[in-house]
Amino acid sequence: MQEFEFDIIGMGAVRTTQRAKFSEPFQRYARYKTALRMFLRGVGIKECPERFEITFVMPFPISYTQKQRKELEGQPHRYKPDLDNLVKGFMDCFGKDDSGVHEFYARKIWGKDGKIILKVVN
Fold first, then answer.
1. Residue 108, class by beta-carbon neighbours within 10 Å (0-12 exposed, 13-18 middle, 19+ buried)?
2. 3-class secondary-structure state, position 53
3. Nearest Cα to 56, choosing from 97, 29, 89?
4. pLDDT tens per residue, the chain (122 residues)?
5. Cα dist from 33 to 1, 10, 29, 121, whole Å
6. Which CATH number covers residue 59?
7. What is the DSSP letter of 32?
8. Range of the domain at 82
9. What's the pTM?
């Protein structure tokens, strides 16, 4: 099993329509996919792994106190974005060819810094 850590905050997939392609959320999503694709290619991953484990570490809001942060560190993140949209956003960075994926485990947790932890299962 190979493990990779990417210092990028996960983003859920954005619904696309012809008009939406020029909106700020879509543009931000396009930048996210490009950045993630570059990180993945940098470690030699050019296509979507067939089996993987992925953890989305979601950063704390600025308004959270140190006590709240300490209590929530590593705990499940139960707010938006939804986990299925985060996974879809991850798989979208490979283009349309994610049909080979047959098994994955995904979770999202609270953490100090936002990041994505990917474990590719051989």
1. buried
2. strand
3. 89
4. 899 999 999 998 887 666 666 788 888 998 999 999 999 999 999 888 899 999 999 999 999 999 999 999 999 999 999 999 999 999 988 877 777 888 999 999 999 999 999 999 97
5. 24, 10, 6, 22
6. 3.30.1330
7. H
8. 2-120
9. 0.90
Distance CA 38, CA 19 (A): 27
Are the C-beta atoms of residues 54 and 103 closer than 8 Å to each other?
A: no
Number of domains present in the structure of the chain: 1
Q: Which of 11, 48, 3 is nearest to 27 (CA)?
A: 11
Tell me the β-bridge partners of 65. Answer: none
Helix (H, G, I), strand (E, B) or coil at 119: strand
Q: In this structure, how many other beta carbons lie within 10 angstroms of the beta carbon of residue 87?
A: 21
In the chain, the amino acid numbered 88 is: K
Would you call 75 helix, strand, or coil by DSSP? coil
